[in-house]
Amino acid sequence: MPAKRGLPLLAMTPAPTPTEPGARPAQAGAPPPAPPTPSSSTPLAAGGAGALAATGASTPNASLAHHGPHPEWADLLNTPEPDDADGPNSSLLGPRARSASDAGVLRRKGHLKEQDPLIEFMLAMHATHTADEVAAKFEGWVADHRRDPHRSRLKRLIPGIGAFFTPLPLTQALAEYDEFFALSRRVYVPPNFAELRHVLNIAQVHASATAGLELITFDADGTLYADGAHMRHDSDMIAHIVRLLRAGVHVAIVTAAGYPGDAARFEARLPGLLSAFAALDLPASVTDRFHIMGGECNYLLRVVPPDDAFGADGNASDGSKASARRRPRRLAFVDDGEWKSPEMAAWREADVAALLDAAEAVLVETASRLAVPVSVVRKERAVGVVPLAPTVYEVLEEMAITVQVELGAAAAERPRPSGGGGGVGVGVGGGSGRAAAAAAAASSSSPTSIPTPPTIPDLPFCAFNGGGDVFVDVGNKSLGLEALKSYLGLDPSAVLHVGDRFTSSGNDAATRDCCSILWVANPEETDFFIRMLLGDLEEQGQAGVE
């Protein structure tokens, strides 16, 4: 197990003098932190984030484990909100303490992005247990569930709980997190959803590194970069991805974005990363470990070796005198026959079109019911609606869940062959296992009229709220990850997916069925946890493989 990492207490490091770069003023009159009382909780130490010294970011190649207090949590909590471009001190109210759930994306979308039965159960337990007791019990319950997932105590307490592909060292993770957030020393303020999500993430980082990480996959928008943005040349994640690849870890971006036959559109999302591959002159043995899974599970791309994109003399195909080393690396589609599962290869285009027709009908009628003007976007393997006027997140949530329920109910009512067989099931929202629940929730007095059940093809799909639109894709990320694992020949315990949408209306939820996850709220959290992961991999000796 990796060595315990020290996360700084709020007033642990002296405040810098005004002449120091990046100095933040200490809050006047801030008392020292209260002494630990392991059997209960005490309030958060006064002083807030303003009392924490800005000690500067650690270098990319430095291990996070043995360098004493470091500012990662402080940096994360002091990231300016979108409406606070001048920084946290620009407010008329002066410096204020930030909450772990203060990230702009969470505040804007309320609690709809904080839905998870396991975390909610853990939160409820804090009414009768200390934070240490909750962590210890859940660590034991996870171990028990891994031994017997059908008769475990955790299965009885949370019937819908899925699989755990690694142990979860929650007591160690809580001890690290507790140094900064003082969960075990707070009396009147229990942990919130984001704090427990952080603790689970820390435990998963340590577990995945110990298990031998071989593949890490990332959602794109909201995880690697801001919604609607691209991976530019100044992205911190570029260095992290290169280090992972050099350490022998496969890296893939699994995204809903789908551009059939147009690799250049995918390249346009990652200009900084592909340029870095070329600038560093990474050999094919390294870049061969990078892939993009587009359209949830419909398109797989790889990095083209320089000799394929350029002539043997280093010239481009148009004869220009530019070496492959100075040109961004290119992407190319992997032939479907090399990686798609037999199930996916059997999808008929007529069924795909019928499913998208039905989804489009539900989306348009639901938008009409909610009085939201929308434009329809139809693609080869997806259909979606984009509001033409400002709307709220809850309205998009209603649209996404309506599609899940309506198409799920129609699939459940479809006549089946005698003997109970037939079909690949319907992946509603977060994966095939959730189809029955969505169908059961459907009412006979449905507000939306869709084609009769026999016209709804038996295909998996993912209906999700994209934050600014609602889309329905054929397939889901679980199918994409399963196909990628098979293509690379990897075990589920060696795979980790990082995403920001694991709720019932999010398209990352399906990945829970096939690998371990890290649930982040924004790219800043992704950066934090990947730095922690890289430190663990260095401790495990998984570095410098090339």
Structure description:
The chain has 546 residues and is of the alpha/beta class. It folds into 3 domains: 49-77 and 100-211, no CATH class; 215-334 and 478-539, HAD superfamily/HAD-like (Rossmann fold, 3-Layer(aba) Sandwich), CATH 3.40.50; 345-475. Helix content is 35%, strand content 10%. The protein has 19 helices and 11 strands. α6 (170-181) packs across α7 and α8 packs parallel to α19. The longest helix has 21 residues, at 349-369. Mean pLDDT is 77; it is low at 1-69, 81-96, 102-110 and 416-445.
Structure keywords:
546 residues; alpha/beta; Rossmann fold; four-stranded antiparallel β-sheet; 11 strands; globular; disordered N terminus
Helix vs. strand class: alpha/beta
How many distinct helices?
19
Largest sheet: 7 strands, mixed
- Report the uncertain regions: 1-69, 81-96, 102-110, 416-445
Which CATH architecture of the largest domain is right? Answer: 3-Layer(aba) Sandwich
| CA-atom Rg in angstroms | 24 Å
State the helical fraction: 25-40%
Please write the string of helix (H) and strand (E) elements. Answer: HHHHHHHEHEHHHEEHEHHHEEHHEEHEEH
Terminal CA distance reads 24 Å
Main β-sheet, spatial strand arrangement: 5-4-3-2-1-10-11
How would you describe the shape? Answer: globular
Question: What is the percentage of strand-forming residues?
Answer: 5-15%
CATH class (first level) name of the largest domain: Alpha Beta
CATH superfamily of the largest domain: HAD superfamily/HAD-like
> How is the CATH topology of the largest domain named?
Rossmann fold
Q: How many strand units?
A: 11
Q: What number of domains?
A: 3
Mean pLDDT: 77
